[in-house]
Amino acid sequence: MASAGLYPELNEAALAQFVTALEGGGTSTLSSELADEANQARGSIEFFKCRVPVDPSPAEPGVSVELDAAVCMPRGSGPFPCVVMPAPWADLGWVAYIAQAAKLALKGYIVLAYTPRGFGKSGGQVEVGGSLDIRDGSAVTDFLLANLPAADPSRIAFLGDSYGSGISLLVAANDPRVKVVGALSTWGSLFSAFYENDTQHTASVDALRGAAANARLSERTQWAFDQMQNGDNISDELRDWADERSPLKAVDRLDRSDLSIFFAHAWHETLFPVNQTLELFNTLSAATKLLDLSIGDHSSPEMSGLIGLPNRIWSDAHRWLDYHLKGLGELDGNTVVSQIMWSKTLESSPDWDAATGTPTRLHLTGPVAGATDGGLAEKPLNGWSTVLATGTDTPATVAGAIIKTGYAEMLGKPKVYPTAEISRTDAAVWTGEPLTGTAKVRGIPGLRLTFQPSAANAGFVAYLFDVAPDGNASIITHAPFTVRDASPGEPVVADIQLQAAGYDVPAGHRLMLVVDTKDPFYGDVNEAGGKLTFSSPEGAPSYLDLPLA
Questions:
Q1: Fewer CB atoms inside 10 A, N or C side of the chain?
Q2: Are residues 288 and 364 in the same domain?
Q3: Residues 161 and 300 both lie in one domain
Q4: pLDDT digits over 287-340, tens only?
Q5: Domain tally for the chain?
Q6: Which of 321, 336, 354 is where one domain is finished?
Q7: CA distance 525 to 208
């Protein structure tokens, strides 16, 4: 049975059976990989379930909470390094980690995996990485050290995927006992993740709410989700709520010389877009850090590891733990590893700047006689304008489906976009000449667009495509933009960053920039029947800055 919601490939039934096998049950229903691991673990490690009590907080006087948890640990007196694993955003809680917890225990780690408050069999209400979740992480650490004499208090890591990764970073920022963090598919700024360029990520919030249908959301969490889904304005109160839950806002406490952080992220992340995590990564200067970037979407690159299969991301996370908690192995000095679309080539760089190409400016031009598309040219050609109607979607979209499209990308089957079917009435399109060589896009493209909205509130989504000679395209990157309370008819200059990309555009293909006004992934502030008029005046020319290696 596959898990619904954020983890479509996660086999909950197999993981539950793995737990049963560790408790002495059979393995006949497990895959050969999980059956072998369960049989090995039963003879070599200890496994038990437990409840972790959390003292009442000042915000909840008299309210005690117990968190559902489990321990996998080596036999022996230790001392052993410890790994605490807050579970992802899912009903099954800590069970999601059981295969990885057993692997780590077999390697000599004490692992305590727990279900965050409000989910599964844990008490309390969902706080989305709030202060109570941070207190819970420290309480779990207290419990581990108080009840497991073999635990080494000087070697503690927090390792989590998705929701568990954000909690791990926030706990590390507030508890100096944490020396290593593994943050897979994480967030740096929760506000930027859900309001990119002031545009609501409605599909992200819908996905989170759907996956938490059985969870117990606090009143404050429900309020925040309501605001992000339906609110017309971005209030300071909502921004404060998000900032309180953002590792980037705690970077002064997170950036410690005695802390080592392993990040893993997907290029086409639709839940927590990559740029906001990159900002956190690049802000860290004292902490030791590594960033693994992969083809796919939220949690998809590391998902096969959760069901016990060999997996590059989890292997890299294990090596990170081995080096920083055990002194085993070597690090090569590179801090960024990029898996390039679609060749899957791995490129390593000493830092993000070294991984980034040199900006090459492509000027947006108007269509030549008889053409519908503008051009992408080396030299500016100002004085043109292009008008598009608002309120109608086109085949240009972020993805086919949140998260699920990323699994096809990992198999080398990215979504195909028929560019000829994109209405030039409902979208503005600029197409470059066929490339004479491979264009290696490495980094964060910049886009400047000057436009005049016909209404006070207006927005668009910009997509950069790789177009094959047959006219079908793959998406390289994208970004939304929203302006509120503008003066209708007056020019607005949008200077935005598209999401970072590691992408090879083959020779003979074309680059295509498409801008439309509606996408099912984002909130739409445009009025039906309105217009956006794009131009490139002398004082504010429109262009695309493409980082090319």
A1: N
A2: no
A3: yes
A4: 999 999 999 999 999 999 998 899 999 999 999 999 999 999 998 989 999 999
A5: 2
A6: 354
A7: 22
If asked whether residues 350 and 416 sit together in one domain, one would say no
Q: H or E stretch including 483?
A: strand 472-483
333 within domain boundaries: yes
Which pLDDT does position 61 carry in this prediction?
A: 66
- Is the model's pLDDT at 4 over the cut of 60? no
Q: Domain check: are 372 and 513 in the same one?
A: yes
pLDDT above 90: residue 8: no
Q: Are residues 525 and 414 in the same domain?
A: yes
Give, in order, the Cα–Cα distances in Å from 404 to each of 86, 218, 301, 327, 343: 23, 28, 12, 38, 20
Residue 288 gets the label, from left (phi > 0), alpha (psi -120 to 50) or beta, of beta
Contact 206, 194 (CB under 8 A): no
The b-or-e profile of 66-75 (16+ CB within 10 A means b, else e) is ebbbbbbbbe
CATH for 522: 2.60.120.260
For residue 143, tell me if it sits in a domain. Answer: yes
pTM of the model: 0.96
- Please give the residue range of the domain that contains residue 103: 47-354
**Burial status of residue 193 (CB atoms within 10 A of its CB: 0-12, 13-18, 19 or more):** buried
- Burial grade of 94 (CB within 10 A; 0-12, 13-18, 19 or more): buried
User: Computed from CA positions of residues 198, 203, 208, 214, in that sequence, does the dihedral angle turn out positive or negative?
Assistant: positive
What are 229-288's pLDDT values in tens digits?
886 678 999 999 999 999 999 999 999 999 999 999 999 999 999 999 999 999 999 999
Tokens of 356: 């980034």
Q: Give the angle subtended at the CA of 286 by the CAs of 284 and 289, to the nearest 5°.
A: 60
Cβ neighbours of residue 263 under 8 Å, at least 6 residues apart?
Answer: 183, 184, 186, 277, 281, 289, 290, 291, 292
501 with 544, same domain: the answer is yes
Q: Are residues 346 and 456 in the same domain?
A: no
Q: What single-letter amino acid sits at 115?
A: T
Domain boundary among the residues 303, 337, 354 is at 354
CB 431 within 8 A of CB 512: yes
Polymer length of the chain: 549
Q: Is 22 helix (H, G, I), strand (E, B) or coil?
A: helix
Q: Are residues 404 and 288 in the same domain?
A: no
